[in-house]
Fold each of these.
Amino acid sequence: MRMIDIIQKKKSGEALTTDEINFMIESYTKGEIPDYQMSAFLMAVYFQNMNKQETADLTMAMVNSGDRINLSAIKGIKVDKHSTGGVGDKISLIVVPLVASVGIPVAKMSGRGLGHTGGTIDKLESIDGFKTELTSSEFINNVNTYKMAIVGQSANLTPADKKLYALRDVTSTVNSIPLIASSIMSKKIASGADAIVLDVKVGSGAFMKSIDEARELARTMVDIGKSLNRKTVAVISNMNQPLGHEVGNANEIREAIEVLSDKGSKDETTVALTIASYMTVLGGAFSDFDIAYKELEQIIKSGKAIDKLKELVKIQGGNPELIDNPDNLPQAKYHIEVKASKDGYVESINAEQIGVTAMLLGAGRKTKEDDIDFSAGVTMVKKVGDKVAVNDTICILHTNKESHNEAIEVALKAFKISKSKPKQIVYIYDVVQ
Ligand code: URA
């Protein structure tokens, strides 16, 4: 088999066979196919798409490119969740203890942030002493005993996806539905989940800019999950502004504490409860979504959910007292208030640009090697639909950097203020199952 023939076939819109896809992914992982040929192939997929069978084959080829995590020693249905990536997206920090508190095992592998998006592992590391690397027996024991563990992805999980994702990032081929779907689903399958809830973000801070595209991505991933015998549900949620009020690391931990203590914002709480409810239904704790949602709301109100977060911090090496005293989490030296330049209503907030602002303040990485500042970030004081008067504070920038002008400029531009009140915001657009 030759890579040039595979590129030619895809370029002319033909479907590839399972053998061709396996050959290509195996050879690319071993370094036998150069990046320039793979780049040409990715661009051909971007324009010509892949059918269901090809997308499922690509997913499995990437799963088989590295280790598969064996979770069979964990009792019960292991439920995982994955977000397609957003800004202020602290849903994993909320749903892991929440779902575990009803006895459903959550063995979570999470990533780090890159560019404008944040990562759960970075956020957790803002808790002094929190270990994001556990041995596999510690991981399994914690999930069996406490029903939860969150760790960074093991180095050899889906190495083909790691290589391909880095190449897509620099060849403008990230936002292709079969490529995103196979990338996400390969990681979920390789990390051993029995059931998967996907949070498909749509809007200015997401890869999918329209609801139709998001629906197609959701359907593709749900079909892959089902074809591989994994119960899969996709929730399509709004990413047309940052989720909640905090974007960064330590400040996102503070907001997760608020949600689990029944003091969260409406958007963050609704999305978290929706994802957690589907996870508990797939895990078999409740018979339907509405019952699950009500029960989980009660669990938050009762204080059980925040206690479970304290337990998570304790068993992974952090100090649980921080959860009662979140002001002791890292704090930045400077807090700069960004002011509205005119009267009106917040019509939109470009979530990606707020993510970029947080990165400029030190909360994110420009390259994989960069260190992050856990205390840096943005507090969204005003959100879409809020009334503002000239000179009102619309957001606060937290940083230890001496120069902040570029960040202020980007944050200001992210806010669009107009005369008329915008339509009511929808948090969840659709659910695909
Ligand atoms: N998240 C992933 O893991 N992969 C993609 O391709 C896009 C978002």
Note: The chain has three domains: 3-48, 79-324, 330-418.
Amino acid sequence: MDSMAELQAELKRIFGFDQFRTGQEAVVRDALAGRDVLALMPTGGGKSLCFQLPALLQPGVTLVVSPLIALMQDQVRLLQDNDIAASFINSSLNAREVSRRTAALLRGDYKLLYLAPERLLLGEFLDGPLRALAEGRGINAFVIDEAHCVSEWGHDFRREYRQLSLLRRRHPQTPMLAFTATATPRVRTDIVSQLALRNPALHITSFNRPNLFYQVRPKSKHTYGELLTQVRGGGAGIVYCLSRRRVDELALQLQGDGIRVRPYHAGLDAETRRDNQEAFIRDDVQAIVATIAFGMGINKPDVRWVAHYDLPKTLEGYYQESGRAGRDGDAARCTLYFGAADIRTSEFLIQQKVHPDTGEPLGEEQRIARQQLRQVLNYAESTECRRAVQLRYLGENFAAPCAACDNCCEPRTAQDWSTEARQFMSCIARLAQRGQRFGAAQIIDILRGARSERVLSRGHDSLSVYGIGKLRTVDEWRHVARALLHQGLIEETQDGYPVLSLNAQSGQVLRQELIVHIAAPVKPKRTRPASTADARPGGSAAAAPEGSALFECLRALRKRLADEHGLPPYVVFHDATLREMVERRPLTLNQFAELSGVGQAKLARYGERFVAAIGEFSA
Ligand code: ADP
Ligand code: ZN
């Protein structure tokens, strides 16, 4: 199995795909060569195929460690629908079912078996079935999915993952393949050492997601309307909110507007959560309004949009959450709604970080959280390519412009705000002369000539800068303050609370040696109905068959078949395959077999029904 053509033929026969995605083939080859592998691929990169294909092309069984029951079930469903002998063992099964599956494993009935780590590491499993397999039919490889779970530096540390190196000690000859969508170097080195990987073939795929359109929209009284337009534009989507209460409120409001949507957060009981998630996966509802508790365990590849109604806590979090859109490679839209009030909310939440026993502020945690918030604000207020900002944060260089973010598609012009910058800095300087340092709120009050208690009681109304900035609104001044901070023209330090001070750069501005350019805040506007089609790479929106009568008819057929088989619709076929059906109108099984996404098993299982439907439509 070394020629490119042979591997591709297998890819098509088994999975129905015409081509490997970037990086997939190289991983497959190293896995087939029996090497240890560490593969870092973004969500939607197609990690599963990298170990599934080698598993099927080798004689023994491949054991896959996966942290979440929902993920295992989903993957096994997908595999079984492709007629691949796969199964899972985890705590959702009763003892009888576990022994039935263990016996099947030993008989050689499975090519792939998914296991929860605690199950695999159980003494009786290690000494029993595992040893028997190793001595008998052979274990091709141990696959460690979501490998960042071994690292305390990752965002999802699992204690059980730590013991997985036991596998290496017990089965030194068996290759280990580790996969993750977490890119940070610290996590990467942790994976290699914790799993005791042996000179692993390192595969790093770019974390750029070219099919995602990124945009930041100002929060205003039009925001809900904008969101509604987005939702009514169609496609499955997720709205992320910061708190449970906001989730419940927004879900109710959308339901009131006739949208089929369910809430999801940790305050709901387990059954409701599962029901709501399942309804989303099966396309029984269009959208989920959720806290960030939602998303880890779902593989739904056809999420067409992700909207953040509140500020995310970290930029990496934003990358991961928005990255749940468009895993199938089709165009999808990621929107972050952002307003000045959100900064105050986030700042308030950070101030709440106190020690649970003593009530002392957790200084270090607050410091980190503030730094993270700063990065999020940087992203939200930047005029730079959104991808470039995100990828730089993930340690990757991206050459802007990208053609699929708001800043690249509709650049905002920067304006000269030097006068305001000087006024702001002068105020800091005047206070400093009195030996005082304050945060932005006090400075803005002084500039705007506020007659507030905190200004008057300190005699700040006698400063020469008092009232010189009346013409600008509070929000405009906040915008200036943040921009000066981002551009490094002033400093923020902690003095119990954040206070501002001048630095060397400020001097240049004050002496008028440096012009301060600040991008105008984006104005709220009514958006065009957000058709995700216009984010499609290549911009072939006009030719999009979505919405055509045939497409809708095939989509309905897919839903019927999916319900008959108890599967999510995307397991039957991806949208891309339905689109090809509309474009090519296959009328025979041979023609149908050529479609991307149609492999041997799917041809046999669904071919006739779809060909018949297309025939009827074309008659
Ligand atoms: P990840 O775990 O990296 O997010 P998955 O393995 O779940 O990615 O794959 C994401 C989606 O991409 C799945 O729906 C899968 O069927 C699809 N996919 C994977 N490889 C290919 C390919 N070569 N061609 C087309 N679709 C693919
Ligand atoms: Zn861009």
Note: The chain has four domains: 4-204, 212-411, 415-519, 544-618.
